[in-house]
Amino acid sequence: MVATHRLAAGAAGAAIAAVCAASLAGCATGTSGSDPGEGAYGPQKGNAAPPRKVLRLIGDGSTAFTGAQPHLPRPERLKPGQKPPQFVVFSWDGAGEDSQKLFSHFRKVARDNNATMTYFLSGVYLLPEEKRGLYRPPQHSPGRSDIGFNDEQGITDTVRQLRQAWLEGNEIGTHFNGHFCGSGGGVGEWTVQEWKDEIDQAKQFVKTWKTNTGLRNAAPLPFDYDKELIGARTPCLEGQENFMRAAGEMGFRYDSSGVNNQVWPKKKQGLWDLSLQLVPFPGHTFEQLSMDYNFMVNQSGTETQGDPAKHDYWGAQMRDGLLQGFQRAYDGNRAPLIIGNHFESWNGGAYMRAVEEVIERVCTKDEVRCVSFRQLVDWLDAQDPKTLKKLRTLGVGQAPKSGWASFLSAPPAPAPKGVPGAPAGRP
């Protein structure tokens, strides 16, 4: 069992629904080459230019197929005795661009620090308020959403950020739609079929934002969302079991809705289980979930703007906890570090400053890859299953006693044809 003082799932759901109603921020509780120092996983510096030519518009032109995503490295299998890279995933729940401009800000932070990230989009952020009736949430009346909807300017700004983020090599996942938590129709009570319906609607709002806003002359999103969408994080980390069953049947590759220690991931119900993790909580004997909301709850409760005199201290606690979690993995078992956030200004923006400092400190270090979940699962799928199984024998912060060269000395089996990392030209 893992030890933590985070809110119980039901209580957390009720609390965060109250905290985040009508907020655009969204809420939840909560590859490497042979040279490990090569910075292959980061995007190129500067803003990515839009595609020169749309190859194929999809549907009403809200999305388009424009070819392979730029800045995605080709994953390779670890060589015998090679130390794994230290992967770090920064992910954002409910990603949208509002007046705080945090989406655009952290895109720049990522570019400046050789990083790519995963943005979990809430579908209702591409649905205007006047069209709210198009959303028919499971177990709720049409047009209901615990995080509201959007307006034309907000949708325009969010689409612009999504477009540029994807072109820079970032991933666009989903945080679904109405963000219903707790009892009385929360996502933890949804059936597999209801999850499938929610996923279909989340996709639909992305694929029809032009029709729903009337912005038919705007540039499309440069990807096919049916193919782009391979993973998610559920609201309040609830409903994971039935969601994973639905997601597996719909072609998803991973889920990040669970809670785990800092160990190497494995598959669950056919999906990579890339759970949020417990990291040190400076000043406490228990560990803390690697998400801004959970730090806040354990510092100021559900009061999003607590004692101003403590804002800097609280931010430093989160920063140092994440850095300590990073360091014990980097010096230890090299398990990927999974971090979750929201675009928010809780406690004076303390957690946003903390995350930015962590990005700046870790993403430019040798042997570190700050990547999206898509890039991480591509790398995992490229590895010899026996190598991953051996990595999973290492506990939290545990480095191989005999060193990496000895621990992973056995030659890995060749990658099957079609698997990422298979040798070029393999028959």
UniProtKB/TrEMBL annotation:
Stretch list, region Disordered: 64-85, 405-427
Biased composition (Low complexity): 418-427
Cytoplasm in keyword set: no
Domain of life according to the entry: Bacteria
Keyword Signal: yes
UniProt xrefs under Gene3D superfamilies: Glycoside hydrolase/deacetylase
Signal peptide positions (record): 1-17
UniProt entry keywords in alphabetical sequence: Signal
InterPro entries for the chain: CE4, Glyco_hydro/deAcase_b/a-brl
Protein name: Lipoprotein
Source species: Streptomyces viridiviolaceus
